[in-house]
Each structure stands twice: as C-alpha cells, then as structure tokens.
Amino acid sequence: MTTALSVDTIDLHYGAAQALKGISITCQPGRITAVLGRNGVGKSSTLRAITGINHVSAGSITFGDGALKRTPPYKRARMGIGYVPQGREIFPLLTVKENLETGYAGLKRSERNIPEYIFELFPVLKSMLGRRGGDLSGGQQQQLAIGRALVTRPKVLVLDEPTEGIQPSIIKDIGRALQFLRDEKGMTILLVEQYLDFCREIADDIYVMDRGEIMHSGPASDLDLPGVRRHLMV
C-alpha cells in the first residue's frame, strides 16, 4: 500500500530545547489518523514540522513519492498538504467569501473556485458569505478554517485540535465532515486532538505522545486500554 504521508524518526529543536525525539507516524491513504496527548507533549510541533513551519533537526518526512526535506510551507500546500492551524487563524476583517478565496493562492487559474461540497458540509458558510470572519462564532470560524483548507484541493488534510473550544453540535458536524472527506473523497486526514470520544468515533489509527515521543500506536479501539489512557490523563 502506498503511504500518503510518512514521518520517519524526526527530531525537532527550539534552540537548545528538544521538542520531538524520534517521532515516526505513518498516514495511510483514505484513513483518519489521530495524534493524542496532553498539552505540551509535542503534538502541534509535529504538525508544524509536517507543514514546514519548523524545520526538523534529524529524520525525514515523505509525502507521496518524495522527501520534503526543507521544502517551504507554501510549496507543501501546492503539493497537496492542507493545514488547519490551532486557533483557526482566519482573517477577522475579511468576509467569509474572501477568507475562502485566500485558498486560491497556490491554485492554477482554472481551479480558482470554491467547491460546492464545502457548502454542503458547512451550510452556514454559504449563508454568511458576506459576513466578516471576526463576526462568526468560534465553531463557525473553525468550519471556515476547514473550508479554506479544502479550497486548496488537499490530498492530505492536517488539523490541529479542531474541537478546541467548540460547542458539541458543531463538533458533531466537523466529525461528519471529516468522515465524508475520508469515505467519499478518499482524503487522508491527520489530526491532533485531546477529545477522546471524538477520536474514538472517527479515527482509524491513533498515536499517543508524551514528552516529545510516541508512546503507543495502533487502532482507535486501543483508546480503551488502561496503558494508553494513562498517557492521556492530566
């Protein structure tokens, strides 16, 4: 089976501090992979390494058939890595439509449109196209951030804590959207998350991190194992 995204024994440092130690993660095509762990264990640093925001100090990251090496973030986006950052980072003064259109940057002119399925997944975006992004609720902003990433036509969608600070009804909407993207679009999805029930419901594969290292990997059903839960307890 072809691997969509492979992280092979990467280290990452912030100055003298080591954030990641020998991290290896494999994302198979058309599956949802979840990386879990407490705050500060290196989950977001892993995604920042994958998206090219931070350079690794050892190891390699392979996307499709090629190694990413020191490929900058904008080139990774053009290659098909879509990123939904923690905190959403939408543009508060731009309208919903303008926020979505920022996803055009890496696309050919002929592809510069908003796929209709985004509005089917998140109908609220269509009804608020003229509203400023900053006027949306946190949950609506999260849907906008996911929609913006989908405009880039990603092969792999990378999400950093998509349920953080979101009301339960929108968490369910986001879960259904990610399952649709996997099942109907064949998209590969990698998400960092702390919400165990969300991961148990939608993830195929899980990795559990602690102190910058992978402590466990396996199927999502492993979330019920006491040894796995121990690494997730505050």
Automatic annotation (TrEMBL):
Which Gene3D superfamilies is this protein grouped with?
P-loop containing nucleotide triphosphate hydrolases
Family affiliation: Belongs to the ABC transporter superfamily.
Q: Which UniProt keywords apply?
A: Amino-acid transport, ATP-binding, Nucleotide-binding, Transport
Q: In its keyword annotation, does this UniProt entry include Nucleotide-binding? A: yes
Q: Taking every annotated instance into account, which residue ranges of this chain make up the domain ABC transporter?
A: 5-234
Q: What is this protein called?
A: Urea ABC transporter ATP-binding subunit UrtE
Which is a GO BP term held by this UniProt record?
L-amino acid transport
Which organism is this entry from? Devosia sediminis
Gene Ontology MF, one = ATP hydrolysis activity
